[in-house]
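Notes from the 1:1 (GR / supervisor)

We went over the backlog. Supervisor wanted to see one worked example end to end before approving the batch request, so GR pasted a single chain during the call. The sequence is below; no edits were made to it. Supervisor asked that the structure be written out right there so they could see what the output format looks like.
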Amino acid sequence: MIAADLAVTTLNLRDPVQAQAADEFVMGRADGTPFHRPAWLNAIASATGNPAHMLAAVAPSGKIRGLLPLTHMKSRLFGQAFVSSGFAVDGGVLAEDLRAAQALGAAAQDLARRGVGSVELRGGAAPSDEWVRHEGSHLGFSRPIAVDDEAELLSIPRKHRAELRKALANPALRMETGRTKRLIRDHYRVFSESVRNLGTPVFPARLFREVLDQFGDDADMLVIYEGDRPVSAVLTLYHRGRVMPFWGGGVADARRLRSNELMYYRLMGHGRTRGMTTFDFGRSKTGSGQAAWKKSFGFDPVPLAYHSWSAGGERRDINPNSPAYQRRVEYWKKLPLPIANLIGPWIARGLG
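Structure output shown during the call:
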C-alpha cells in the first residue's frame, strides 16, 4: 500500500536486520512499549501459533516512520481479530506523524477485509475517525519508584503498609529472582492456580519460556517462597526505565501470608537496583478487586481507551464485564486444577 511518500510493508521478523530496525524504532520512542517489539510478536507466535504481522510505514529512504504490530487471534469460542498486541495490555499504532499512522491504519483495515474482519488496538490514538473508541472496561496504574526501601514503604497507604509489615516480619518468606528452569517451573505452578481461582484459562507454559528467551535480560522471574514452597510469583518486563510486572499471582494461601504484597514491594526494590524509575502495575478491570487492591497500594487509576474497526460493524466479545463472559468465569472457577491446566492453554491461545 502507498500513502503519498510512504510505503506500508510487512516486515520479516525472522530476518535479523529487519527485526533490529523495528526494535531500534520502538526503543527510540518514548511511547514505545515492550508489546511493540519484535520480541513480543515472535514470542506470541512461537508459543501459541497465532501468526504475527509487523506492518511498517517506510519512507523512500528506507527509514521506518511507523509500526503496527498485529497478532492474528483465532478462537472457536471468541472469534478472530487482528490485535495490537496479542496477549498484551498495550500496543496500537506507533508512528512519527499522522500520515504514517493513517497509512498503517488503512493497511490494517485492508488486511482485515481479506477474511479476518476486524482489528483491535490496545493503545495509542485512533488512526482515523473510522475507528470506534472503547473505554470504561480497564484502568491503568503506575507511579515513580521511591529512592530506597524505607521511602517505598512509607509511600504505601497506612492500612496496606501494616499488612506488608506482617509479611516483612515473617522469617519463612524469602525472595528469589532470575531466569532459571526452577523459577520458571515454580512461577507456572503458582500462576496456573491463581488464574484458575480468578476464572481465567491459563496460558501455555511455553509462552512464558518464549518471552524470557526473546527478551533476554529485559525480562525475569521473581518468586516468593514460604520455606521451599512457592506462594507468589511474577514474570516482569523492563522497558525504558519501567518495571512492568505482567503475569503474576499467588496461591490460595497468599492472602494469609501477605506474600503478594511482599512480592511487589520486593520487585520495586529489585527494579531500583536495575536502574528503573517507574513501576507500571499494568491494567485491571474497572470495579474489580484487583483494581481496588492496587489503589490501596498507593497507585492512582487512569482510565484506558482502546480502538477497533470491523468490516461488519461487530467485534469479539472479550469484554470481562459482559454477562456472557462472567458466566464463563464462574464456570471456570469450579474446575479442578488439573483439568483447568489441561484444557486451559488450548482455550487461552485464542483469548489474548
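Supervisor's comment: DSSP finds twelve helices and 14 strands in the chain.
Batch request approved.
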